[in-house]
Here is the input.
Amino acid sequence: MRPRRLLALLPALLLALLAPASPAPAGPAGRPPFETTKVAEGVYSFRFMNHRNMFVVTDEGVIATDPINPKAAQAMMAEIRKVTDKPIKYVVYSHEHWDHILGGKIFKEAGAQFVSQERCAAHFSYNPNPLVVMPDVTFKDRHDIKLGGKTLELHYFGPNHGNCSVFMLLPQEKILFIVDLVTPKRVGFRGLTTTDPGGAVRSLRAIEKLAFDRIIPGHGPATAPASAVREMREYYEDLIAAVKAAMQETSDVDKIKEMVKLPKYEKWGMYEKWLPLNVERIAGWLRVGQ
Here is the structure.
């Protein structure tokens, strides 16, 4: 490079060298990778990236849920320690899907007992993952955890999004932790790959009979109104009815995907991208029964 040109470039080079480095982006829309929100006395909604869980702090210890993955579990443990130095007594799995449950080791090493619906334990046995901590306690339909004056009710209503999905109710606080079956104001996840649509409707009807005012969803806001459960049940019912009607006119799934529109839900998240995939899944379920 010629000396004159180098001299001309020096001011710009010096400015670039002296300028402060830009921080790395924290996540979508500048969100930090994790955060904790207190939603009631002793009840916390924890988010790691796009996944959520819940932990409950009592005078005798902590009830944690879905450890997500090892990084999330480390962050969650640190967040718990900001609130209390009481021991982690229990970790409860919401269901069998690995994206919610792979971080349990740090809690097991801290002495926690792991709890799941019995079908989860069977699933982990025939489909093992080295990062899944096997449950110490299993149950069939209902199990209550009582700790430090708080009660966490665990309810199982059959297969829906997962084969062993558990819904966790804090009856005193009237808060329900519900994972994946309901994401407020969003259509079903992609192709509803693991979902039993009929089971989803049955489970949502059963959940609606429980006494709660708010939910903590596995994805989405820190809390949402209880009405999100009813809205999701209505979405499934409307979706099934619309696909049934379309199937009376044609058996061509591509045409059915074009025919089925649900304007009531067009403002819900992922409506344009995922509704056709939801329709395809429902058509397959109606055709073969699973």
Remarks:
- The first helix runs from residue 3 to 18.
